[in-house]
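Following up on my earlier thread - several people asked me to post the actual chain instead of describing it. Fair enough. Here it is, all 411 residues.
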Amino acid sequence: MSAGTDNLKHIVVLMMENRSFDHMLGGLKTQFPKINGLSGNEQNPDSDNNMVTVVPNAAYQGQLEADPDHHFPGVDLQIFGGTPPGPGRLANMQGFVKSYATQTKRPQDSHQIMNYFPPKMVPVLTTLATEYAVFNGWFSSIPGPTICNRAFAHYGTSFGNVDMNMFLLPAADRNKIPTIYERMAKGGQSAKLYYFDQASSTMEIVNLLTDQSLFGTFGDFIADCNSGNLPEYSFIEPNYSNHPGPGGGQLLANDQHPPHNVLAGERFIASVYNQIRKIPDLWKSTALLIVYDEHGGLYDHVVPPDCMADGFTAAAAATGTGEVFTFNRLGIRVPAVLVSPFIPRGTVVPGPEDPANQRIFEHASIPATVTKKFLEGNDNGTDREKNAETFLDLLGDTMRAENDCMVFRMK
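Reply from S.P.:
Thanks for posting it. Predicted structure:
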């Protein structure tokens, strides 16, 4: 244990939508070589087998009007380059342009999937990544879309689902593997899932909705921070839709899911950080994890590693690839940043690029870490969760000075 973990009273997770590590943070490698980003030479073939090189030309909005494929068959193409399932096939991360060509109206538009943001265009996320801790090896839990990946953050499994099925379990089976929120309540601890507002609703599975006491709005999160009533564990969702706000104004979707405006998401990340940062007692007792549910079909160069199987299988008909998926390999890498005044500036958590020291994280790491801190490891989580990496050890003994922890000046 360290002073940082001893002082830790709150874990807050903000889960954004559908962006890969290289797309958002890959440009940091030039200035920070320990960050496993882009050299600028990475390539993918298009449908005519012309090679397309990564370029720092990502746009905030409008460039990805066609939603990149992030369902299981599309992700399989992205990872394996079109080699069908079977013995001996190797992941090569060479199918991203070909995959996006199946979604776009014009062939040349498929090249846009190789665009990434220069750090100056996403200053909030890149600043937090370099001021605190960035994970080189945080992967989505399965090579598939939103709902099944978010389920791993709540349950440590998706119960065999690889799609957008919001009904993960029949009613009779819902108590077999309880959520981390239910486990926290049973252990005498508090936990809450904060969705943005009623119009945005929640992107979570129906099983969770059976207990409305678990939920609050983002306004409730702000109020709970200000009143000193923030739960031990909080999970925050962004705004998923453009819709009218209070006073007749327009609220922009800030989840960063293409084609939504990335800058709106930057502001939302900053607002969550600032809300915690401005309250001294909360700041010194909170670890904030900013992570993305899955890569959204956007390019990343790191091959997803194998992982502990979770005991479920998805039939070939469900995967759409002819493969029976046994949940023994991870999905594509996503941005993940851990914030705390007990984290030294410039912390880079090594991933697959450093085999001797690599640490592999995924969304089951979230309930695993919450369990380790608040439930002393004594609960009935899945084997996948019990074998997942945790991040409490990144909090050290020395708390950084007040003037050593930046605050975002919002416009």
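The mean pLDDT is 91. That should answer part of your original question.
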